[in-house]
Request: fold
Amino acid sequence: MAIVFPTPRRLGWRLNPVGLVAACVIAFWAVIAVIGPWITPHPPGEIVDYDFFGPLSAQFPMGTDYLGRDMLSRVFSGARYSVGISLAAVMIACTAGIVLGMSAAVIGGMTDTIISRLLDAISSIPSKLFGLVVVAAIGSSIPVLIAVLAVVYTPGSYRFARALAVNVATMDYVTVARARGEATIYLIRAEILPNILGPVLADMGLRFVFVVLLLSGLSFLGLGVQPPNADWGSLVRENMGGLSFGAPAVIMPSVAIATLTISVNLLIDNLPTRIRDRSE
Reply:
């Protein structure tokens, strides 16, 4: 008996060419973040060219930096920090925000009020200012950066998830489940979450973009990933001296940030949300 696996077309998914290209770019950077340090043509910290801010060439496809290090190797190695830290932070922020938002919507009352006011207080602090103060006070390290980024974006994820969950919680099938005496955990897991999953996943993608940009901003200010490691924001900062020369060492990390964030936005805008009618 032949086994037929479902394809995107059978499931009614239609991903247009723009979304497909965006997905390929995201997949490329995801793969580079995992295997980048093992496929770099040169060690990221090794000086391989005596011509600083070297141009694009066959030997150095992204040029060289202010010390003569290969930029392709440094961009590939930096992908692990830019993508990895941002992904960890957005997973923590969105998981906490979604769980708290659904819980507040289902339980309501004083629980809802306390959680909402607490997270409103956090969200009232400008994100960059909060990150600068905390990182400057505690010191910059990867766990601190992940924690700061997660705290900054948890309130927004909470508000979005709560707004969706409040609407779903008023539906008849949730009322029937309450009347049956179902526990709060059941209501959240079986009735609320499946009906808000699509929008919250799209929101998670947008928050990933915000986290990448905030991390790059902190690194550009010298409070992000510290030497000898470097993410894309750090690469831009340390090569700013070559901006007046139009050096690839400044442009290439910026292009990496732009391609990742724009691709995530394009993929979210072109997500397949319509299911084909059964009669087709």
Residues 17-49+58-269 form a domain with the MetI-like fold fold (CATH 1.10.3720.10). The CA atoms of residues 2 and 10 lie 17 Å apart. The longest helix spans residues 71-107. The chain has one domain: 17-49+58-269.
